[in-house]
Structure formats: structure tokens, C-alpha cells
Amino acid sequence: MKADPMIPTLSVAHLHTQFTTRAGIVKAVDDVSFSVMPGQIMGLVGESGSGKSMTGYSIMGLIDHPGQVTQGSILLQGRELRGIPAEAMRTIRGDRIAMIFQDPMMTLNPVLRIDTQMMEAVLAHHNVSKDTARAMSRDALARVGIPSPDERLLAYPHQFSGGMRQRVAIAIALFNKPDLIICDEPTTALDVTIQGQILYEMQKLCRESGTALIWITHDLSVVAGLADTVCVMYAGKIVESGTVRQVLEQPRHPYTHGLIASAPSRNPRGQPLRQIPGMTPSLLNLPTGCAFRERCDRASAACLESPPLDQADGRALRCFHPIHTLVEAA
């Protein structure tokens, strides 16, 4: 089914995901909203523990007990995914939506050969012969840069390097040209050359098939060259969003500015690396009001209240004291 270019492939509204623990309730995803159009690539960025991966798992329906999605809506081309039967969700996963994990062994079975696993992924969603499924598997391995694909199909995951296992997982996710792919830092273990090849394949897939892509990462340089839009997360909330040019060239939230300024490439030669002071707060013990206020040099008494998410000119911002000018951000 060809995607309607006027309807968002994915629309997430007021999503809340919580984990009930003995120490209290962890608000891993706290009132998150965004949408991704067909063929669009969205970067989801932030420090470790900001809620990026949990947002992806929530969309995929992969939150296990004691976690649960407690509120919100997840629409895939207008169809609500929250609350649908588990069997229906399994049919959707791998066909209409796919996720590439940071750890490829979350995708690959260590006791099955690569050809068995890849052909199974093809045959589950396509009415083709085993010979055709094998040919598709071989071509997919070649596309992600794995040499001697015929030989590699007969190998087991433990016979691959970590980077090669990740490329197999990426190849499986690309098989069915799904409507939506969620990538959870999938190129972390890959060298720069292979990373560039994978990013090119992702962009090509989105352009040609209208697949929407969410790229979860802490690497702003990847987002700058890959994504169309970007959402910046902190302590379970989106604090700023907009086009890549808007957010990366004119950051308005102090946290976004801090992330960009801390990139080594932006640091003057011979000067200590810039960094955001302090640590990301525990989601079990968030400060009152703005979660970033204890690390922010612009904080005031107003920040003891939680700032609303204001939207204007295609941008969204959650801050009482935003940065307004390029000179101020420098």
C-alpha cells in the first residue's frame, strides 16, 4: 500500500511510558508528541537516559513488565497501535514497522545460521520460493557491504564481528521496505566507511519508497547529514524540535546549545573541551519544575515550575529563558 503523502506515517501524541519499581515510578517517556511524514527522516537526540530508546520501544510495543504505556496515542498511517491484540502487532512488526537495535544480538538468534534467519524474515511476509528468498538474502547482504555473501549466509552469528552482525540486522530490517523504520544507534559499532554506506542506503530507501525513518542517536554530526527534522529529548521530555537547520544552526534551548557546543569539532584548538555541567538527573528523583534547571546558567525562580511546550513557526520549545540570537548562542 502506497503511503498517502498528506497523512503522517507516524503520529505520536502525549505519550507516557512508566516503570513501577520498589523505589517509585520512573517516567521514562513523559508527554512526548511528534509526527513523521512519508519519506521523512527524524533525528531523536539526547544524552543517555533521556528516554530516546524507550520512545522507540513504546512505538514498537516492546515495553515489558513492570513498564507500560499509560497514556497517549500512537497512530501508524491513522491506525491506532495502542491496545491492538498482540498477534496483530506481531504481524505489523517486521512488515510495516521495523526496528534496528544498537545490539544486533537482540535481532539475531545465536544458534541459527544467517541464511535460516534471513530467509525466515522474507518468507514470513512474502509468498515466494525458498530459492527466491535465498537470492533476496544474498543481495541484501551485498547491499550492506558484506563480502562473499554466499559464504556468509552459511555462517552463524558468532562467526561474524560485531559490525558485521549489525549489518545483517540492518539488512533484515530493510527487507520489506516498511512504512516506518526506527533505528536505535545502529551504526555505533561500524567504522566510518561502512557507516556512510548504511546512511546512504537509508536515505535512498526513504527517497524511493516513502519509508519514514526515526534515527535515535547522541551523535549530532550524523543527524546533521541525515535527518530532515530533529527532536531533542531530556529527562523523558522533548525540549526542542524543528528542522535540522533551525535546531542545529539556531538552537534556542540551553540544553540543545550545550550539546552542540560540546562537540569537539566546535572547540577552539588548545582550549579545554566545553561540557554541560553536572549529570542527567535520575528519572526517579527529578527536580521540581524544569528538569534541566540545576545544570542551566539561565535558570531563575520561574524554572521551579514546569515550562509548557510552546509551538511557533514550525518549531517547538520547552523553556522559560530561551536563547534568542546567534550572538547569544555563540
TrEMBL record:
The keyword Membrane applies. This is ABC transporter ATP-binding protein. Residues 10-260 form the ABC transporter domain. It is found in: Cell inner membrane. It is a peripheral membrane protein. It holds the Pfam family oligo_HPY. It comes from Actimicrobium antarcticum. InterPro entries: AAA+_ATPase, ABC_Ni/Peptide_Import, ABC_transporter-like_ATP-bd, ABC_transporter-like_CS, Oligopep_ABC_C, P-loop_NTPase. Keywords: ATP-binding, Cell membrane, Membrane, Nucleotide-binding, Transport. Its main location: membrane. PANTHER family: DIPEPTIDE TRANSPORT ATP-BINDING PROTEIN DPPD (PTHR43297:SF2), OLIGOPEPTIDE TRANSPORT ATP-BINDING PROTEIN APPD (PTHR43297). GO terms for molecular function: ATP binding. Belongs to the ABC transporter superfamily.
